[in-house]
Amino acid sequence: MDPFLTFKIGGTGLRVQRLRMDLIASNLANVDTTRTPQGGPYRRKDLLVAAVPIQSQFGNILQAKLGQVVKAAVPVAVVSDPRPFKLIYDPSHPDADKNGYVKLPNVNPIEEMVNMISALRAYEANVTTINNAKAMIQKALEIAR
After folding, report:
1. Distance CA 57, CA 97 (A)
2. Would residue 38 count as lying in a domain?
3. Burial environment of residue 107 by CB neighbours within 10 A (0 to 12, 13 to 18, 19 or more)
4. Of 13, 25, 94, 96, which cross-links 126 as Cys (Cβ 3.0–4.6 Å)?
5. How far is the C-alpha of 136 from the C-alpha of 128, rounded, in Å?
6. What is the spatial distance between Cα 59 and Cα 52, in angstroms, rounded to a whole number?
7. Is residue 58 in some structural domain?
């Protein structure tokens, strides 16, 4: 078994949560953006995460014993949220249509804050996992002296 597999898994988790935080920050920064270079209001972005099986002897044994797929390293993709834009009536707005309605981004600040807290907690959990693995390896080295 690779003793550094825990660090690789934890590092992957840290990268995924950092990407989530970057997207959340972008969504919150553009909560009132009604005009983008692509045209129309800003569309909320989200992170799509897919798991792949661990390729290790331990993972293979565990998978055989449990009859499940053990997951680890993750490929990610940024996807646009398909939910409709919010419409508000503001005829004085420069981006208002002929009826006076303005399309606002489909970003909900409360939802983004909840996602931010979730990403923060997941980031902290990955840091704790890495620190615990480091402490176990240090203790093993002390025992071996």
Report:
1. 61
2. no
3. buried
4. 13
5. 12
6. 12
7. yes
CB 80 within 8 A of CB 44: yes
Structural domain that includes position 133: 5-31+45-80+107-144
Nearest to 127 by CA among 3, 10, 5: 10
Cα of 85 vs its chain's centroid, Å: 22
The answer to whether residue 68 scores a pLDDT higher than 60 is: no
Mean pLDDT to the nearest integer, 110-118: 97
pLDDT above 90: residue 27: yes
What is the phi/psi pair of residue 91, to 5°? -65, -20
Question: Is residue 85 one of the residues assigned to a domain?
Answer: no
Indicate whether 116 belongs to any domain.
yes
CATH number at residue 76: 1.10.287
- How many CA atoms within 13 Å lie on the side-chain side of 57? 3
| Integer Cα distance of 136 and 133 in angstroms | 5
Helix (H) or strand (E) holding 61, with range, is helix 57-66
Q: Are the beta carbons of 136 and 12 closer than 8 angstroms?
A: no
0.85 surpassed by pTM: no
